[in-house]
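Listing S7. Sequence submitted for prediction.
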Amino acid sequence: MSTVTPVTEEGIQERLRRLGLPALEARPVVWRDTTRYMSIERGHVVELEGVPYLVRCNEREGRFGLDEQPKFWVKRAVNLDTGATQVLKLVVEESFKVTVGARQVLCVRSAAKESRVLELVRGDARFMQGRTVRDAAGNPVRVIDFIPGNDLLSELDALRVAHEEYCRAFLPSVLARVSESLAGLARLHDAGLCHGDIRNDHLLVERSTGAYKWIDFDLDQGFADFDIWSVGNILHYVAAQGFMTFREAIETQPRLSGKLTRDDASFFFPHRIMNLAKVYPYLPEKLNRVLLRFSFSAPACYDRISQITDDLAEALASMVRESGEWPAASRRQKEPAA
């Protein structure tokens, strides 16, 4: 069994000086067992296999119109050996059920499953990168490289253009990148794994490169269908440049009153419209056909991610034929590195 010399108070202060960071005003609080993650606060130090990490804050996420909620088991920290900003995902036990159509699906938070995904996708630019280390109590802590940028939700919200202009100028590029990201998910499924928590705010747009990267793999449902149905939510948002509900559609376009039915609804979120061509008649027909595969009226559901990406490729090709120009994002992906 390997032994690691614990970091000392002097060692921590020396690392801070070397990195040009302010010295700690008080004696550092050092955690080597992260079981009591709620007690680990800003300014504390988490030591993992001899490497000290200075905690900066709890990560946050906002959902369903709520203010951003702190995730007390996820700490943003500075690696005091390298100076890099990283994210420490500590072990939390959690399970809950979600409803997909008439079916209830059990979701379990699993550090072990996320560790397996991180190993599988190492070096794949479509995914967050990190590794799993053990704290002194044996808890598997995932040390994740921080990705500066926005989530897809925020990125598209920031586009202040009318929807028709969005479809013409931005949708082909966004769809090309999303399709490439979805192809990455097929790699997980082929290995018997799943993402488990596919959401618009779990697909980040890296600020420096514009690359789309999946994050957060620690939820597990034990079957890939949940991922496939969740992809429909991403495509709905991309096509609508936001969430389009029945209420919003009728409020903004009274002509739709009485013309929208349950068959037009998302199977996953029945208050959202999947048959978006009724709201946006100019939406590419082949893209709308993909959306309808996630609706109550779907004659057949998708079984594999590759089926989705194949249909998206056809939709993109039809958009390219109409515009005469291939999306810039896709051109960059195809060009060899300089």
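Caption to Listing S7: primary sequence and predicted structure tokens for the chain studied. The domain at 149-334 is CATH 1.10.510.10 (Transferase(Phosphotransferase); domain 1). Residues 171-190 form the longest helix (20 residues).
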